[in-house]
Amino acid sequence: MYPPKFEYYRADSVRSAVAMMKEHDGKFLAGGQSLIPVMNLRLADPSSLVDIGRIDFLKGLWQRGHVHYIGALTTH
């Protein structure tokens, strides 16, 4: 089964992702391994998807002082 039609937007920064989400009121798409199958089963029907998968700021590990950070899009 195919998902319902939706608008697709690709963000290149966190700021643009937030702006797109405010404007289009959709769902964030990172890898799609959870959302796309749910859409195929028609359990989710977002009108738009904002792809954040290419925002480099959300990937990686870094440290500031004694605090370690893991970006939301970091893979193993």
From TrEMBL:
Molecular function per GO: carbon-monoxide oxygenase activity; flavin adenine dinucleotide binding
Magnesium among keywords: no
Name of the top EC class for this enzyme: oxidoreductase
Keywords: FAD, Flavoprotein, Oxidoreductase
The protein's Enzyme Commission number: 1.2.5.3
Domain Molybdopterin dehydrogenase FAD-binding: 5-76
Name of the protein this chain belongs to: Aerobic carbon monoxide dehydrogenase (Quinone), medium chain
Species per Swiss-Prot/TrEMBL record: hydrothermal vent metagenome
